[in-house]
Design brief:
alpha/beta; Rossmann fold; eleven-stranded parallel β-sheet; six-stranded mixed β-sheet; 49 helices; 49% helix
């Protein structure tokens, strides 16, 4: 039979074997070979591979092109197909017994671009493992632009597709780019820097295990599981990026980072460590972020430098009571190899740099991180937490990269010293909220209505910066939005609404209006609350059937939807359950604290003081797992609440505060005596007052000549949030009446919009004005708006590095103008542009007692400087003006100089790093000459030449008040610097 007829007769079978895997790789590999042999032209290749077209259509087009080219092309096609297909050839499919190409082709490699074609299959094989490195090299050498790189790195492309796209782009760029790429590949192969990822040297069983692991992770990660999987939402459809920032200041990184930077080198502070910590508050999206990383790795769309990825849940590790070796931990809790376990484990030990572990929820372990018990033998058995801690600190399997998530409260100094870097996950940005809501609601009209309602209720909008609360609001938008005066104000309000939402959907016919769930469902709520409270107290978040029986949980209780089956990765475990989210467990635990008659009177005081609740609060037998653990390590449970227990105890206390507020008091009167509710309310109030006084007493006495300041201790913000949840002005007044400081510092305290709302509620009751420092948080525009109620009591506001834009500034200045006490503001390292300078100009014109304006490291240009100049001409009070790190240039400097020449109050002016040249310096020399108050002028890191400096020297001869002009890193030769420094000592180079 002719080869051409063989292709035609087997067309259906050929299409099946090319497309049955669902991957385009076989079709693309065959066309690579034919393209390299010159059998396909570039036009043929482009007609076959049409982006967005179904795989079967592309495969049919390939067969059509080959068939029409004749006998020779069909023969080469079958030879290529034979190379591409696996060794296990499908039954009923045959190749010609003897065939040879009648034409003798001479390889033509006269150009580098032609070489990219003739060697395409091998180049794709090599490049797919080092696409990022090649792109970086091409970008650095100016052969590629950033847009070129982004187009190639599209997540929807597999590594081999990225490699092919890279080759196509290089060919389009021409000979120089092709030559550069070929030299890069050759140098990399010679030096060994281009990794083949061991894919050609690892065993077949390893590759099978890798495929099984990818398949398992893909199946586990494709649907959103963070919120209990109440609806089967595809992770691809719902995932929204949260705000990721480095915990430590990195000079090379400004602003947020991306997912790929978590395991990358960006922000590394300890090269010897292997553990990356992702920290964030409850509900900030830590688990979902890890789930996204798992899915991307499973699809070979990210983390390609790691051959194996093993995911662990610390919540599930809590239930592992027996001692395990590291090997048993690895395979039992993730994915068990079908064969050759020892060989695969040996590879992991020999190549730790190719392995990635993730541990979700370190704060949910029963034990705080400790480096006391060292273990380095991977076959030695030990308690699970000992294995985990030794992995984190690097004693066990040094070199394996670990990504660990935790809430900030569990991050101890002992843990921090073992970290490679810490990444902060700060929830959704305003655009993230918009994106999530639109993804959650398939109907654009509903999404638009939800967003419109959110923007009219800024308190609720602030809550939505927490992804878990954004999810709740999206689920319960009908109950939560458009409620007028009854709209939710606190986190407790939101959780009460979602509980009502669940009960309403459980019994839609029982009531046409709102369900009085606290009456109709009191018994199941109490049973769920008892289970939740016992779990919180015992650091237990996964419950067995026996645990449910202990609290009399029924199938009807389970059907309510708050308690769902846990997605345990191990097939050897019996069925177990967990709450939708840990915050939901805390809420039900708080309900139990408020309503239950079985708890000691000491429960609430111990809850707020974070003391051990086990002895006084749990009269009944606890869960089997917890009891077994208690026998194993009694001493660790006898201590006061550890760092890992603190976050959930604090959240439970916060909910208890809200539930005992006067607003919600009536909910419980039908099931609990009023005297008992009043007693518990008084207990909470007393605990909050006592806690605040404890913080105030810790304030050190000021140094002589300085004003008294308070740097918030851990727990201070939590207490303020509890006071806000109670919505009692009298409690806030009582607490603030005892705070007497001039400056309140809350830097690096995870202050977001929710915390700003609570701060404003409490701080507005201060007796004396205070300076409020909120640097390095996530206040944002919504948080700024939440702070407005306390602006009248602020004499200064520091908001460095808070992702604030012109929109937030417009509202802040409109309020500040009305505040007599407000005199200073610092907003450097934000996202301000020229649009905000009109507001600041109005501020300078209106407030003739304003003394300090610092806007460094923003995006202000000459136009913004001109706007500021209009305000400076009128202002008679400003002493400090900081505009460093902007782009005002000569024109902006000239505008400022014109406004400041006759000024009599300005003492300090910073224009560092603004692209100012000699023209701007000459204009500023008039200020130096004529301004009688100026003492310091900062012009470092500009473009000033000798001419500009000569003008400044001449001006200094007429003004003895100026103490220094800083001119480092300008356009001056060394000899010019030495000469002018001798001529004028006040010039600092």
């Amino acid at each position: 039979m002719r080869v051409q007829d063989l292709v035609l007769n087997q067309r259906t079978e050929i299409l099946r074997v090319l497309c049955s895997s669902g991957s385009a790789e076989p079709v693309e590999h065959v066309t690579d070979i034919l393209l390299s042999q010159g059998e396909l032209t570039w036009e043929d290749y482009q007609s076959i591979h049409v982006s967005g077209r179904p795989l079967y259509t592309n495969a049919r087009q390939l067969l059509d092109v080959v068939y029409l080219k004749g006998e020779s092309s069909c023969g080469l096609f079958l030879e290529a197909l034979k190379k591409v297909l696996p060794e296990e050839q499908p039954a009923g499919f045959s190749f010609p017994d003897h065939w040879s190409d009648p034409e003798v082709r001479e390889e033509c490699q006269n150009t580098f671009c032609q070489t990219l074609l003739t060697q395409r299959p091998s180049l794709v094989s090599t490049l797919q493992h080092c696409v990022d490195g090649a792109l970086e090299a091409l970008l650095t050498s100016a052969h590629f632009t950033s847009a070129d790189c982004e187009g190639i790195r599209l997540p929807l492309r597999t590594p081999s597709q990225q490699a092919r796209c890279l080759l196509d782009h290089v060919r389009a760029k021409g000979e120089a780019a092709a030559k550069f790429l070929l030299e890069y590949i050759q140098q990399g192969e010679e030096s060994g820097s281009i990794l083949n990822k061991k894919t050609q040297t690892v065993s077949r069983e390893f590759l099978k295990f890798q495929k099984k692991l990818r398949s398992s992770l893909s199946a586990q990660s494709c649907f959103l599981s963070t919120y209990g999987g109440t609806s089967h939402m595809s992770l691809d459809d719902i995932y929204t990026d949260g705000q990721l920032e480095l915990a430590e200041v990195c000079p090379d990184v400004h602003g947020p980072i991306g997912l790929k930077d978590i395991t990358g080198e960006v922000g590394t502070i300890n090269e010897e460590a292997d553990t990356v910590l992702v920290s964030g508050e409850a509900g900030s999206g830590k688990s979902t972020l890890l789930q996204r990383l798992h899915l991307l790795w499973a699809r070979e769309a990210a983390l390609l430098e790691y051959l194996l990825l093993f995911p662990f849940s610390c919540r599930r590790l809590n239930t592992e009571l027996s001692e395990l070796s590291f090997k048993e931990l690895l395979f039992q809790h993730c994915c068990w190899p079908d064969r050759d376990q020892d060989e695969i484990f040996d590879f992991i030990q020999d190549h730790p740099h190719l392995i990635l572990f993730t541990f979700d929820g370190l704060d949910e372990l029963k034990q705080s991180f400790s480096d006391e018990h060292r273990l380095c033998c991977p076959t030695q058995r030990a308690p699970v937490h000992v294995l985990l801690f030794n992995l984190i600190q690097g004693s066990l399997l040094k070199g394996v990269r670990k990504v660990v998530t935790s809430r900030p409260g569990a991050v101890t100094p002992v843990l921090k010293k073992n970290l490679r870097k810490e990444v902060l996950l700060k929830g959704f940005s305003p655009s993230g909220i918009d994106c999530f809501v639109r993804k959650h609601h398939s109907d654009p009209t509903v999404a638009a209505k939800v967003l419109q309602s959110l923007h009219t209720n800024t308190t609720l909008l602030g809550l939505c910066h927490s992804p878990v609360l954004c999810w709740i609001v999206s689920c319960c938008h009908k109950e939560l939005l458009g409620c007028g005066e009854g709209s939710p104000q606190t986190i407790t309000d939101v959780y009460l609404t979602i509980v009502e939402h669940f009960f309403q959907h459980h019994s839609p016919l029982r009531s046409t209006g709102k369900i009085s769930w606290h009456r109709e469902y009191l018994d199941p709520v109490l049973r769920l609350g008892q289970l939740a409270f016992k779990g919180i107290v015992s650091t237990c978040y996964i419950f067995s059937d026996k645990d449910l029986d202990t609290c009399a949980i029924t199938k009807e209780d389970l059907s309510l939807g708050f308690l769902i089956q846990s997605k345990d990765l191990s097939v050897f475990r019996s069925k177990c359950y967990e709450f939708l989210h840990v915050t939901m467990q805390c809420f039900f635990a708080a309900v139990y604290v408020v309503v239950s008659k079985d708890l000691d009177r000491s429960t609430i005081p111990k809850l707020f003081e974070l003391k051990n609740l086990k002895e006084t609060s749990l009269r009944t037998a606890c869960f089997s797992a917890c009891l077994l653990y208690q026998q194993v390590d009694e001493r660790s449970l006898d201590k006061d609440a550890t760092a890992v227990e603190t976050p959930n105890l604090q959240m439970t206390a916060t909910f208890a505060s809200g539930l005992l507020s006067q607003r919600h008091r009536s909910l419980w009167l039908h099931c609990c005596p009023a005297t008992a509710i009043d007693r518990k309310t008084r207990q909470v109030s007393k605990c909050l007052s006592k806690g605040m006084q404890k913080h105030f007493k810790s304030i050190p006495q000021p140094v002589a000549g300085e004003k008294k300041s308070m740097h918030a201790m851990p727990g201070f913000v939590w207490l303020i949030k509890c006071i806000y949840e109670m919505q009692e002005c009298s409690i806030a007044k009582d607490a603030m009446s005892k705070l007497e400081v001039d400056h309140l510092k809350l830097t690096y305290c995870n202050i977001g919009p929710v915390e700003c709302t609570a701060l404003a509620f409490v701080l507005q009751h201060l007796n004396n004005p205070v300076g409020l420092q909120l640097d390095n948080n996530t206040v944002g525009d919504v948080g700024v708006e939440q702070l407005l109620p306390c602006m009248h009591i602020c004499h200064s506001l520091y908001l460095r590095n808070n992702n604030i834009t012109d929109e937030g500034i417009h509202k802040l200045i409109a309020k500040s103008i009305q505040c007599d006490n407000f005199h200073k503001i610092a907003l450097f390292n934000n996202r301000l542009t020229d649009a905000c300078t009109q507001d600041f100009s109005l501020l300078l014109k209106t407030k003739q007692d304003f003394i300090s304006l610092r806007l460094g490291n923003n995006n202000i240009t000459a136009e913004g400087a001109k706007q500021l100049a209009e305000g400076l001409r009128v202002n008679k009070s400003l002493k400090f003006l900081g505009l460093w790190g902007n782009s005002i240039g000569d024109a902006g400097a000239e505008a400022l100089a014109s406004a400041l020449e006759g000024n009599t109050t300005l003492v300090w002016l910073s224009l560092v790093g603004n692209g100012i040249g000699s023209a701007g310096a000459c204009a500023l020399s008039k200020v130096v000459k004529n301004n009688v108050s100026l003492e310091e002028l900062w012009l470092t890191e500009n473009c000033i030449t000798r001419m500009g400096v000569e003008c400044l020297i001449e001006a200094l001869q007429h003004n003895a008040n100026v103490k220094s002009i800083w001119l480092r890193n300008n356009d001056l030769r060394l000899e010019e610097v030495e000469e002018m420094a001798q001529r004028e000592s006040r010039l600092l180079f």
